[in-house]
């Protein structure tokens, strides 16, 4: 993976912090908004520096959380009113457009 700068980390953190309650975004959406080349970079940043952020609002484009986060992430999202069916977020309803901010 390419060297990740502090500016990139801070931009990802800023974007994730701005995702409204009751909505979700994807790793790819965050990468695009931050000007990063890969959703994997966002995943790495989130894995290493997101404990104080609404990390649960960032999900795979499929709407399915990672298995190790599934229970906690879906509980947090349901508590915010995000529609979840059969363990998957309804992305057509809950996904926020980051280009509008």
TrEMBL record:
Question: What InterPro entries would the database entry show?
Answer: ATL_DNA_repair (IPR052520), MethylDNA_cys_MeTrfase_DNA-bd (IPR014048), MethylDNA_cys_MeTrfase_DNAb (IPR036217), WH-like_DNA-bd_sf (IPR036388)
Annotated Pfam families: DNA_binding_1
For whether the record's keyword set contains DNA damage, the answer is yes
Q: Locate the Methylated-DNA-[protein]-cysteine S-methyltransferase DNA binding domain: which residues?
A: 10-81
Q: Which UniProt keywords apply?
A: DNA damage
PANTHER family linked to this entry? 6-O-METHYLGUANINE DNA METHYLTRANSFERASE, ALKYLTRANSFERASE-LIKE PROTEIN 1
Protein name (database record): MGMT family protein
């Amino acid at each position: 993976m390419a060297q990740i700068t502090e500016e990139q980390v801070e931009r990802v953190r800023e974007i994730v912090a701005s995702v409204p309650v009751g909505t979700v975004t994807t790793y790819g959406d965050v990468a695009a908004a931050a000007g990063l080349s890969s959703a994997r970079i966002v995943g790495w940043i989130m894995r290493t520096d997101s404990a104080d952020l609404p990390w649960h609002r960032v999900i795979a484009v499929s709407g399915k959380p990672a298995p190790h986060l599934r229970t906690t992430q879906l509980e947090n999202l349901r508590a915010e009113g995000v529609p979840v069916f059969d363990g998957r977020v309804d992305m057509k309803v809950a996904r926020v457009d980051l280009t509008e901010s």
